[in-house]
Amino acid sequence: MVRLLNKNNVGKLSDLVYSIFKIQEFFTHIVEVNNPEVEPCIYAMWHAHQCCIHGLKNRAKTNVLISRSKDGEVIARVVGKWGFKLIRGSKGKKGAVEATMQMIEALKSGENCAMMVDGPRGPAKIVKDGVIKIAKLAGVPIVPIYWYSTNFNFTKFPSWDGFRMPVLDVRLINLYGEPIYVPHDGDDKSDEEARLKLQASLEELEQRAPEEYDKVYWHGLWRRR
Description:
The chain is an alpha/beta fold. It is built from 5 helices and 9 strands. Helix 3 packs parallel to helix 4 (130-138).
């Protein structure tokens, strides 16, 4: 069987995906809720919510970590056209170290980073420790993000992560948690405490999201944009 995605068609497929996203941009209405607006920082989200970066304001100063897989190549080209910077280490453990160093360098230079903290292979909604190590070494806070909508066409795809994407006209919120600081001189115990704090924050945002969404709805904030 011929693979749908290969090195010969990745360019055409990424152009198609970008065109779809570009059209969708006109129908995607995001209101930020409780953005602490601290920079530089690491924006932390579930893998399923990776498209919430669409709501981030300063794309030119935000680096997105994307894998070197063929799927990742399509995503990288689309994200690059969106105006974000890309960080892509080579494959394997060496590549992971390379990508980590690139992120730390970007953060120390005053730029932001965005990470899917349960990716790229899951398990879903379990924070891995990579984001904690990077925040610790770079000396920057982690800012959790959860995006949410009650619109029926905020579509959930049948993937391992339950990937969510708006289809046609959708009103959403990007709900932010309080910045999480990882002690630069902390030990393994304090690192684990920070990881659990991030896990709890993302879970708490999920619980709060319906209430916060209702507030935005009743105040008519989408109509004011």
